[in-house]
């Protein structure tokens, strides 16, 4: 990776972490607010923070699943090549004479 890509990845990771921390802290601070009923701005903001946290959690799950599938796809062909494609008449030492 180049320095520019590393810096971009670091800034993106820090942004996600800050968003998570601020969302969690806002939910914790405003959990026992005086609700005004329907159209309560604090409740709407808490709902937005919860949706942000759920989205980040789903994204992490997708990344882990994609990494697992990628690793599986990289290792699986090596097993099948060793088992299926290495067998030929020469490797089995078959003599074809009449």
Q: How does this model look, in words?
A:
Helices cover 73% and strands 0% of the residues. The longest helix is centred in the middle third of the chain and has 45 residues, at 41-85. It is mainly alpha-helical and 98 residues long. The mean pLDDT is 85. The protein starts with a helix and ends in a 13-residue tail after the last helix. It has helices spanning 3-29, 41-85. The chain is elongated.
In short:
By secondary structure, this protein is mainly alpha-helical. It has 2 helices and no strands.
Assembly level? single chain
User: CA-to-CA gap between the ends?
Assistant: 60 Å
Q: Structural class of the helix and strand makeup?
A: mainly alpha
**Level of helix content?**
over 70%
Largest sheet: none
The total strand number stands at 0
Strand content: under 5%
Number of helices: 2
| Cα-based radius of gyration, to the nearest Å | 27 Å
Summarize the SSE layout with pairings.
Blueprint: H1 3-29, H2 41-85
Helix pairs in contact: 1-2
Name the descriptors.
73% helix; 2 helices; 98 residues; mainly alpha
